[in-house]
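Human: Note token order:
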Amino acid sequence: MSIYNNNFQYYRGQSRDKTDEAPTRQLENNVTKAFLNVLEHADLSLLQAFCGRFGLKAPSEQPEFRFQVGTGIQSGAETGVVLAIAKASTVYEDAETGARTIADGAICSPEASIVIEIKIGNDSLYQSQLNGHQRLLVHAKRIQPCVIITWEDVFEFLGAERSRLVERNDKLSCWLIQQFLEFGMNNCIAKDSLEFEDIFRLFPTEEERNMAKEIHAYIMSHAEWRRSVTASIPKRGDCIEYKRNDKPRSHFLTVSCQNSPSSKVGDEWQRSDLH
């Protein structure tokens, strides 16, 4: 089954941004949208339970959901708080610049304005960014200390809530939760480190997944290749790079799920090298 059968999965096509950070940034934006869509379109009791579980003031009625918040929230809520979600709960100290920040999202109600910062993979939380997000809450009557939770916390919560909502026969809420849990697994949002199988899973079709596995197995099964080639997963987390040990700064083959065909070959490599 293709990962694109998941309602939240997006297509990673060609992009003008060729930096290593671009795929992570795109995935982070889609994770934010998917997560907030679950909280917005599921039964309100899910959002209320989420707030109660993580020490946030819960809305009494359906709140407003916002994306990419870069200006002060005007709602004048009773409480304002920054909610940060990342793989790890560590917040690193860094130089305070006072620069304007853009939060990934916000949930706004008379009870609380919740400004949300999302991090995925190995991206870390920094105090200066969270401080900048707090400045977006200037109109809140009371500012609550930042709440930091992990994706493991979120997935554990959603799994438990899905069981509760199954008993209520809330099919839409259960479907939204299940789709997000699958989306998170497919994209390894909460994993400490990626493995080759995680990369293979990202290919959209079974044929492409098998092709990538065959290429990897072919290289790794030959003693001469194993001695002269190193396979690794770069920080961007959407491909496998094969580098010659005598030229560690360059790679001769990249097996990537971003573009078609499934593999991209460096200038120095010739197909005859595989024979």
The chain has eight helices and eleven strands.
